């Protein structure tokens, strides 16, 4: 029987209100998708700290085979002369993670910011809160916009939006002033050519996360927005170790992206070690959206079609639910509460059981 390797993202004992004991009780969950959050971007992840994390996870009957994310230093993305040093560190991090049994590393190649929303806690009609995105609110001044978004989330600091980075925003933007999409692609290729041989040697697959939202923002280029971008990326280094995270929500934020078809095409080529399965709900025809519960009935994506694409492709990679709503009074890191993501897992597992049993009959 084809089993789903289902994971749950965890931000570590000191920073996540959700415990490993909680995660262990989510039915069908065997993997913790973890990371070291105290290592500065660009530094080598110390072996001892990875071992410690693995020990904690395994003491709770769970596995640590997927890391999200080992972030990439902006000097690599912007192609600065110092990039070689950071690439050497990344290679060592891959080796250290491999020696602890890690199989997949999720990363992204978005300049300066990670994913972006214009509201981190929009109240939905049922009283739950979800993150939302409205193109019109993407101010031409990123600093202004980020501050106002952050205030709306009780000052919760999102990845890539840390105060020390906001303080250097002008310099960061300067570093990208001559980087267009082609240049950014060249820098990704340079990085992949250096690290994929190491991945092959130690059996760790790289899984690039799509740009979220899949459009360029504040004049910064974005290079993983759709199928065409993926074709360019997979050709950079022709190896199954040069893979993708297919995040159904991120790609699905552009209604022109046929997410089940993308899954089928790239799984067939063995390029999808990791899937983020989540839904979003469009609120108009301009592509503005809010995040929703995982169910097809609650959003604009058909999660049955998505899971069926995995099943038909005999998918053996890892899956996790992604951003959920804040429900039942839970407050914490926006999108990463326990309850709605746990509901997501049981829902996705239910679809999977039906697909498996239908096939056996
Ligand atoms: C968005 C989320 C993100 C993702 C990072 C990967 O869809 O999954 O938090 O983990 O962008 O680097
Ligand atoms: Mn995602």
UniProtKB/TrEMBL annotation:
GO terms for biological process: D-glucuronate catabolic process. It catalyses: D-mannonate = 2-dehydro-3-deoxy-D-gluconate + H2O. Its EC number is 4.2.1.8. The gene is uxuA. Keywords: Iron, Lyase, Manganese. Coiled coil: none annotated. Catalyzes the dehydration of D-mannonate. The keyword Lyase applies. This is Mannonate dehydratase. It holds the Pfam family UxuA. It comes from Secundilactobacillus mixtipabuli. Belongs to the mannonate dehydratase family. Pathway: Carbohydrate metabolism; pentose and glucuronate interconversion.
């Amino acid at each position: 029987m084809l089993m789903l390797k289902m994971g749950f993202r965890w931000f570590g004992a000191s920073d996540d209100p959700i415990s490993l004991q909680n995660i262990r009780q989510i039915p069908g969950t065997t993997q913790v998708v973890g990371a070291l959050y105290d290592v500065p971007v660009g530094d080598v992840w110390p072996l001892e700290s990875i071992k410690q994390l693995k020990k904690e996870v395994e003491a709770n009957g769970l596995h640590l085979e997927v890391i999200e994310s080992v972030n990439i230093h902006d000097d690599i993305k912007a192609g600065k002369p110092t990039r070689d040093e950071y690439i050497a560190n990344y290679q060592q991090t891959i080796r250290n993670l491999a020696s602890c049994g890690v199989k997949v590393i999720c990363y992204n190649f978005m300049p300066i910011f990670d994913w972006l929303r214009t509201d981190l806690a929009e109240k939905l009609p049922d009283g739950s809160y979800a993150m939302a995105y409205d193109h019109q609110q993407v101010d031409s001044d990123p600093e202004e916009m980020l501050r106002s978004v952050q205030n709306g989330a009780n000052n919760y600091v999102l990845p890539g939006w840390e105060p020390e980075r906001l303080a250097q925003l002008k310099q960061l933007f300067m570093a990208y002033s001559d980087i267009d999409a082609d240049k950014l692609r060249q820098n990704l290729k340079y990085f992949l050519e250096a690290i994929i041989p190491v991945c092959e040697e130690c059996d760790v697959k790289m899984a690039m996360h799509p740009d979220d939202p899949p459009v360029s923002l504040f004049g910064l280029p974005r290079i993983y927005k759709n199928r065409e971008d993926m074709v360019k990326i997979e050709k950079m280094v022709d190896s199954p170790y040069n893979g993708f995270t297919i995040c159904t929500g991120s790609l699905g934020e552009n209604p022109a992206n046929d997410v089940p078809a993308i899954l089928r095409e790239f799984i067939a080529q063995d390029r999808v070690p990791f899937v983020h399965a989540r839904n979003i709900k469009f609120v108009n025809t301009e592509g503005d959206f809010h995040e929703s519960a995982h169910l097809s009935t609650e959003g604009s994506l058909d999660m049955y079609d998505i899971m069926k694409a995995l099943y038909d492709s005999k998918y053996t990679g890892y899956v996790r639910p992604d951003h959920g709503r804040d429900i039942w009074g839970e407050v914490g890191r926006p999108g990463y509460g326990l309850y709605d993501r746990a509901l997501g897992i049981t829902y996705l597992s239910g679809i999977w059981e039906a697909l498996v049993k239908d096939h056996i009959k």
